[in-house]
């Protein structure tokens, strides 16, 4: 589809990212996925294109401006590389960058933020716990003040990039039960009492490491409290909106993979004396996949336009996430049917997409949570 809100700058950015993915990532994506990691120098290479700098001041290596359309274009292009774990490995820092700039002390920002934005260091956001994910109000990790330090106890899990990250933004309970008793803390990898272990083998996202973090009387300086005590969840809420927008865009990119590879295969494969693409049932599958891609893309473009106008349409972002991931489920299934055995082989983009549908549907807020939040945002 034509991008209705394109500008020369957005078009140039999109084409730059697409060219980088085609040259630097796609040829190696399956190899890196099988190896379980990406070369660390890739972080700096893609950071040089500004992909981690949206909304970040230039003094910290950022772009000095934000653009939701560019954010979406980046997520779409990266998710088409052939292995979603590559994108996750590079982008794990993204959800920690904005809270650090907005809430961390000037000393912390000066010391670490530029290294994170420019890809030299990794960062992670620790919200999810072994006892619960989307139900943040029941968060159990605690932080207690002890003189000039905070002492953290508890654990976090499913932390993307957690085994390689140097810095973490950690949510911990500092007040009474509920969302209003949660604060955010800046924790470095060598903090006393902090340890981490990798998650066991996963269905997908092989190139990206996920970790469980442990805090056993973990001591950090008092200045590492980020923002106002007990108001951490409110302060980081907008961060979740951008994460969900990005995941919707990832779903869109994966849907495009399904369509592209289905068309290519159907044009090459012959059955019953004619190309697969000439069979009506296959043509209808392709038409339906294409229609769902158009709907998701149009919806995301509209959401980006509203954000660009200064609004954060929370209900629409939530609806886009569960709608996009359900559409992705459909496209992944249909593409697998079209490719048949060829789609079931490792090294196929469709095989990879089929395995990674659920991580997009669950990550950043499950579809059940997104539906409920959308309805509450509608005032019901």
Care to give the gist of this entry?
By secondary structure, this protein is of the alpha+beta class. The chain has 12 helices and 10 strands.
CATH topology of the largest domain: Butyryl-CoA Dehydrogenase, subunit A, domain 3
Q: Which geometry do the CA atoms define?
A: globular
Largest sheet: 4 strands, mixed
Helix content: 40-55%
**Class computed from helices, strands and strand pairing:** alpha+beta
H/I helix tally: 12
Give the name of the CATH superfamily of the largest domain.
Butyryl-CoA Dehydrogenase, subunit A, domain 3
Oligomeric state = single chain
Across the major sheet, the strand order is 1-4-5-8
Give the tally of structural domains.
3
Mean pLDDT: 95
Secondary structure: number of strands: 10
Encode the helix/strand succession as letters.
HHHHHHHEEEEEEEEHEEHHHH
CATH class of the largest domain: Mainly Alpha
Low-confidence segments: none
Ends distance: 34 Å
Describe this structure as you would to a colleague.
It is a single chain. The chain has 380 residues and is α+β, with helices and mostly antiparallel strands. The protein has 12 helices and 10 strands. It folds into 3 domains: 8-117, Butyryl-Coa Dehydrogenase, subunit A, domain 1 (Orthogonal Bundle); 123-233, Butyryl-CoA Dehydrogenase, subunit A, domain 2; 236-377, Butyryl-CoA Dehydrogenase, subunit A, domain 3 (Up-down Bundle), CATH 1.20.140. A hairpin with an 8-residue loop joins strand 4 (167-173) and strand 5 (182-188). The mean pLDDT is 95.
């Amino acid at each position: 589809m034509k991008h209705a809100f394109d500008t020369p700058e957005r078009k140039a950015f999109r084409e730059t990212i697409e060219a980088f993915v085609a040259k630097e990532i796609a040829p190696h994506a399956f190899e890196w996925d099988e190896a379980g990691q990406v070369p660390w120098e890739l972080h700096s290479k893609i950071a040089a294109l500004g992909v981690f700098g949206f909304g970040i001041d230039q003094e910290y290596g950022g772009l000095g401006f934000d653009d939701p359309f560019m954010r979406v274009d980046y997520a779409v292009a990266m998710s088409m590389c052939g292995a979603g774990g590559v994108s996750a490995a590079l982008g794990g820092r993204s959800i920690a960058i904005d809270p650090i700039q907005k809430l961390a002390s000037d000393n912390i920002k000066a010391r670490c933020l530029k290294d994170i934005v420019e890809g030299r260091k990794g960062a992670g956001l620790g919200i999810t716990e072994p006892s619960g994910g989307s139900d943040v109000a029941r968060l159990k990790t605690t932080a207690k003040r002890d003189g000039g330090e905070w002492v953290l106890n508890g654990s976090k899990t499913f932390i993307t990039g957690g085994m390689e990250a140097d810095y973490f933004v950690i949510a911990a309970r500092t007040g009474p039960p509920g969302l209003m008793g949660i604060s955010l803390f800046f924790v470095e990898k060598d903090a006393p009492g902090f340890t981490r272990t990798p998650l066991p083998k996963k269905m997908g996202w092989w190139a990206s490491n996920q970790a469980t973090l442990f805090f056993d009387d973990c001591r950090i300086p008092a200045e590492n409290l980020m923002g106002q005590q007990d108001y951490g969840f409110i302060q980081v809420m907008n961060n979740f909106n951008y994460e969900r927008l990005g995941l919707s865009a990832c779903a869109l990119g994966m849907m495009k993979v399904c369509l592209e590879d289905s068309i290519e295969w159907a044009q090459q494969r012959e059955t019953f004396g004619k190309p697969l693409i000439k069979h009506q049932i296959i043509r209808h599958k392709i038409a339906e996949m294409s229609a769902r891609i158009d709907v998701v893309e149009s919806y995301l473009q509209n959401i980006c336009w509203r954000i660009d106008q200064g609004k954060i349409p929370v209900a629409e972002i939530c609806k886009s996430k569960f709608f996009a991931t359900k559409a992705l489920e459909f496209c992944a299934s249909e593409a697998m049917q079209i490719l048949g055995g060829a789609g079931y082989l490792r090294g196929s983009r469709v095989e990879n997409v089929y395995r990674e549908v659920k991580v997009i549907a669950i990550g950043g807020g499950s579809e059940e949570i997104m539906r409920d939040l959308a309805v509450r945002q509608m005032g019901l």
